[in-house]
């Protein structure tokens, strides 16, 4: 799955940064992934409602930990295999060259500061013929 032509070289410093951040994120997400294993065994002997609550309480921790670990594995994969098709596609998507296309439109804050011109309605409307006294 190597790309021979049109590949963007990934500098060594960025590969090292990607590897370090991937390892950090993986170990950061691990306690969240393992939280249900720490919480649930002590609760299952108690009442049924407490068990149901703790299962529902621990699901977001599990999902957040898995999400962080998936992001970490993607960063680590980019560091190990910079010339793979997946890495090149991700690199092109977030490359500084493509950011000009993303930021070419005005933000909502910039659009809000522009003066809006009211459109004048045509004289064919009923209320345009009424004059205030």
Short précis:
By secondary structure, the chain is mostly helical. It has a domain at 12-95.
- Radius of gyration over alpha carbons? 28 Å
Termini Cα gap? 79 Å
Overall outline: flat
DSSP helical segment count? 5
Describe the biggest sheet?
none
Q: Give the DSSP E fraction (strand runs of 2 or more residues).
A: under 5%
Helix content: 55-70%
Mean pLDDT: 77
Provide the structure class: mainly alpha
Number of strands: 0
Question: pLDDT below 50 for ≥5 consecutive residues: which ranges?
Answer: none
What is the N-to-C succession of helices and strands? HHHHH
Features of the shown structure:
133 residues, mainly alpha, 5 helices, 60% helix
Textual characterization of the structure:
With 133 residues, the protein is mostly helical. The protein has a domain at 12-95. The protein contains 5 helices and no strands. The termini are far apart. 7% of the residues are buried.
Walk me through the topology:
Elements: H1 12-39, H2 48-80, H3 85-93, H4 99-102, H5 108-113
Helix pairs in contact: 1-2
């Amino acid at each position: 799955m190597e790309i021979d032509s049109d590949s963007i070289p990934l500098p060594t410093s960025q590969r090292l940064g990607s590897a370090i951040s991937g390892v950090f994120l993986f170990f950061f997400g691990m306690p969240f992934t393992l939280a249900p294993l720490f919480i649930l065994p002590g609760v299952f002997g108690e009442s049924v409602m407490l068990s149901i609550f703790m299962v529902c309480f621990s699901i977001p921790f599990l999902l957040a930990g898995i999400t962080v670990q998936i992001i970490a594995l993607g960063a680590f994969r980019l560091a190990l295999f910079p010339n793979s098709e997946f890495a090149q596609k991700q690199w092109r998507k977030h490359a500084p060259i493509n950011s000009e296309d993303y930021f070419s439109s005005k933000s909502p804050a910039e659009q809000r500061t522009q003066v809006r011109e009211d459109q004048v309605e045509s004289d064919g409307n009923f209320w345009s013929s009424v004059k205030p006294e």
